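Annex B. Sample input.
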Amino acid sequence: MNKIKVFTKTASLICAFIMLTALSGKTSPAPGVSSLGFAIQMGAFSELGNAERLAAKLQNKGIDAFYYRKDNGIYAVRFGDFPSKEKARAAAERLVADKIISSFYIAPPKEIVFSRPAKRAPIKSDSRQVVRQEQANQAPDSTKPVSDNQKNFRKDRDMGVIAARTAERFVGIPYRWGGDTVVDGMDCSGFVRAVFSLCGVSIPRTSFEQYRTGESVAKSDLQDGDLVFFGASEDKINHVGIYVGSGRFVHAPRRGEDIRITAVDESYFEKRFIGAKRYF
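Annex B, continued. Sample output.
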């Protein structure tokens, strides 16, 4: 009889825990995805080529570095996933001692670099029928004030939206990933990884590994921040991009080409669509 009472009490506690977890509204990263620790940021380059060369130099040393354009138009290079600020600083100081960099900034975990869309001119179409960037349909007007509650909501519950807005910031920038040793398909997955890193999230490096993590999403249920994958089959994925709404995704088409926005249902990609995954 006592065993029955203990079992009943345990079951009740488990049910209560499940209900509290559901009511809390908090979300966790998908398996294979983790929160990023401290990162090292360096450089304040007005010329893209300078940021590109520093990133390539670090990449060729085995450092997973990437570059991005800040709101003021200046380019910066970032890398790392350190468990503490002290370890990040020690790594940065070694780079200074080796005369690879002259100054640095330690980026804290969960730092949101971009949360609202940038003001951009319409994107010109190309042979792959790139669609225009209709930012007004994707997020609130960036000229309007955002309340603290709205900011917290975006940070805590809408990381997909933040990832999409961050991806849009790369549009128009030529992107090269992996230094001189880059392989086919790495630029696109490297770009995706860079975007998620700026959102404080670490995901696998290759498109094949990225497809093996996250929650599967139907094409009809795509939301901002989902990754869309393309290829000959699930075992032969060779392209990935970030969905940004209205049937469009941002991606790095080929090595050295500009990051661009393309329709998921554009004929070339529609034929090669493999699936989509969600990570938040």
